Structure formats: C-alpha cells, structure tokens
Amino acid sequence: MEESISKRHKGRRFFRTLFRFLMLYVLLSVVATPVVLWMIFPKNSSGSTSAFPLSGSQEINIPSANGFLQGWIVEVEDSKGLVLLLHGIHGNAEDMAENMARFRDLGWTSLVINATGVGASDGTWTRGIQQQYMDGRAALAWISEQPVIEGLPIVVYGHSAGAWAAARLSMEDKVDGVICVSGFDRPVVLMTTWAERYVGPFAWMEIPFLRMWESILFGPEYDASGGKTLTESGKPALVVHGGEDRIVPEQTSLFAAYVQNHSPVESILVEKAGHSQSQVMDAISNDAILNLLNESASYAQEEEKVH
To answer: For domain 44-186+224-306, which architecture applies?
Structure first.
C-alpha cells in the first residue's frame, strides 16, 4: 500500500516538473523570439543618403506605414514602362544600380527604394524578410499619384526577399509583370530551414512562436506562398535561380514552386550561380529580359481594352 502511494507521488512530481518545464519553455520562447528577430533584422544604415551611383537618378521620398521610404527614380524619355526594384534583406537600393542601368538602356524608367529601416528610410529596424512586400505596396501607391508615370506598364523586379515581394505584388492590379531573382517560396519555411542549420530539429519546436510573432508583424501575409500567388495572378513573369544557391536552397525556392505547379512563367536555373544577384543576372540575356518587358506591356494593353 505504502509502495503504491509512493509511486503515485513520484508520478505526480514528474508531471508537475514536466508541466513547469513546458511552461518555462513557452514563456522563454515567447519572450526570446522577438528579441532574436530584432537581432537578425537590425537597422541597416548602409546605402546612399545623398548621391546614388547612377547618373540621371533623382532622389524621392515615398510615404509608408512606418514614415517615409528613401528612393531614386531614373526616367527615360518616351519610356515604354516602369520597373520597380526591390532589394534583398541586408541589402540596399545601391545593389540595384546596375540593373537600373540595364532597364534604362532597354527604354524603361526605373524606380528603387530602400526598405524600412535601410539607409535613410524611416524605421528602427528592417522588421523581416516580408517587409519589402509592404514597402512595395507603398511604392505602387506613390506611383499611382504621379501623372507622368502612372499610366505606364509596371514590372516589379526583386532579388531574394525582394523576389518574394515581387511575386506577392503580382496580385496588385497596377502590376503587369514580375522578374524574380533568387527568391524563396514561403518566408517562415525558409527561416526555419536557416535555423535548422544551427540548432537542428529544435528549430521546428520554435515554429509556433515564430509564426505567432511573424503574424503580429505582417498579418496574414506572413507565410504566404509566392509561387501560389504568382500562379494565380497569371501575370507575365521571369523566375531565375542559381543552382548553387545556399541562402535559398532550391527546394524552398520560387523556382521549385513554379516547376512543381507548372505555372505559366519562364523559369531559368543558372547552374553555376549562387545567391548573388550579379552572378545570376550576368547569365541572363537582354533578350530574355526584353521579352518579359514586352509581354508585360502587351498584358497592360490587353487589360486596358478589357476595362
């Protein structure tokens, strides 16, 4: 009898200890997750605050939910359209200067922004890999208020986090086409994959807390599929990925999502390229880019006929 009671007491102590451990784990995770996010996505002061490394560029300020976004526009006479460029996480607008020159030479006006918390853009931190989607929407709203460029076909070009944002922005009525370079399909899936490299299977235990905080920051878009969004939009698209990309492994990429979904987009895998924008884009011909731009302009014309 006494032995039976002793076993019950031991069992209760075990479950009480387990319960306390789980509660402590939950509490620490709830508190630690936003701190870790803040450390991963700090204020990024790099990037131009005055001169932009491309002749003919004009600095602009775009209103956003977090204040103002710093940007530059390079206008082209008799422009065929406008390209909105979105840089990757830990990058800045200057990363896009070379591509802006390329679009200029193809007869398209280009506009680039520093994301929230980058360069002279407002924001105490860069918030996360989904932020460029929010900032891209702010840029599109600004474009719609500029009579000189509002009527032009609009293509969104993005690298890495900017590529996911470009895919998500394909659902916007103002957008007529996208170019996605080294992009991922789903943000939280990618972030968990990164974490797994450092802490192993423990990373998957943190998913509920990561999802909670990401949803607080970004609402229902926090883990939306860029591949599904672009497939459903039906917009002209060029999706490019490096075969040796270690930042965005192919299985988590936009490229893989398109191949799997048989999406009506042109997808190019650059076998010897990594995550670097220049490595990937140097392998893409002007003809491929021009075809996408022309398809987007045609799409805009067809939509205008419908409306």
So the answer is: 3-Layer(aba) Sandwich (3.40)
